[in-house]
Amino acid sequence: MNPIQTKITLHKLKNFVKEDLSQMDLVIARLTHGKEQLIFKLSNHLIASGGKRLRPILTIICAKLFGYAGNKHIDFAAAVEFIHTATLLHDDVVDESSLRRGKPTANHQWGNKASILVGDFLLSQAFKLMVAQNSLEALDILSSASAVIAEGEVMQLAATNNLTITEIQYIEIIKAKTAELFAAACQIGAVVANGSEPENQALRHFGMSLGIAFQIIDDALDYSANIMDLGKDIGNDFKEGKVTLPVLIAYRRSNELEKAFWLRTMKLLDQKPEDLEQAIDLIKKHDAFNYCLDQAKSYINQASAALSGFPPSEAKLILSGILDFAIERSY
Ligand code: IPE
Ligand code: IPE
Ligand code: MG
Ligand code: MG
């Protein structure tokens, strides 16, 4: 699907929860007005520059799947987006990224120290929101998710420059750093709507599988996207020596000469300007993008299966639409 089509698809999905999303945006705006101007400037820079809002959309739609008609899900959705935003602020420092959502990253504009500190502030706002809701169960889900995400980022750091990590290890890392929040976002939507334990677990499983697929596609897009569509730099993972699925597969299928290329560039980080192009050529030569797509599709199928117990509804259709978007997206 071309980028314009995927944008239309996401727009349609967002339309279904438009009212709830604008209420959530109000909560976010209110809580980013710290005493210090820099907090507002920096968080607003990132929040106002868009973002797909996928995780809070999941919380809202999972609540609606049960016909939930209250308003507690708004604060939980805001908490989920705060955790996501804080993670991005920290992640861009760690990854030394300079472009996010089509704009210079906060670390590029205000420096690493400001990004880390404001990230901490946003994380605390998420927890204040949850405590105010008085749901120990939701607090448990999101605080555990936060810990797992941080652990995932550290696991990834420890695996940097390591071309011998296995596919299983790779999946463990992306489950922790990315899929866990998708899982938690869906699960608390169900919890807030008083879903039964098997229903909550089904939605957790749905989110987990979707999140894994989402990160696999993200890792493929890091080598294949158009910068204008993605709003992030291409080749960042390569530059950092972050070994992701496209590289793992290309490396595994490489001849000796090609293996030497990957070792020089990703293990030793001895890179020349033309190396990224060669990396992309090798990934294509060894059909690693298609491998990633197939893997992502199989997780999307698992996510779809997790929904099978729920009766047909508009909310269920939107959740299926998100699964399609995750595979077809170009940004
Ligand atoms: C970026 O997530 C981090 C990953 C897990 C790849 P998104 O692609 O959902 O980021 P935004 O919020 O839309 O910018
Ligand atoms: C996802 O990993 C980051 C987190 C979820 C913490 P990436 O590092 O690939 O995300 P981008 O590409 O910077 O958005
Ligand atoms: Mg990153
Ligand atoms: Mg990425």
Could you characterize the architecture of this molecule?
- The protein is mainly α.
- The protein has helices at 3-16, 18-31, 37-47, 54-64, 72-94, 106-110, 112-132, 136-158, 167-192, 197-224, 227-230, 236-240, 245-252, 256-267, 275-285, 288-306, 314-328, and strands at residues 99-100, 103-104.
- Strand 1 and strand 2 form a beta hairpin.
- The mean pLDDT is 95.
- The chain binds 3-methylbut-3-enyl trihydrogen diphosphate (2 copies) and magnesium ion (2 copies).
- Residues 218, 222 line the site of one magnesium ion (MG).
Which helices and strands occur, and which strands form pairs?
Elements: H1 3-16, H2 18-31, H3 37-47, H4 54-64, H5 72-94, E1 99-100, E2 103-104, H6 106-110, H7 112-132, H8 136-158, H9 167-192, H10 197-224, H11 227-230, H12 236-240, H13 245-252, H14 256-267, H15 275-285, H16 288-306, H17 314-328
Antiparallel strand pairs: 1-2
Helix pairs in contact: 1-17, 2-5, 3-7, 4-5, 4-9, 4-17, 5-7, 5-8, 5-9, 8-9, 9-10, 10-16, 13-15, 13-16, 16-17
The structure holds 3-methylbut-3-enyl trihydrogen diphosphate (2 copies) and magnesium ion (2 copies).
One magnesium ion binds at residues 91, 95, 97.
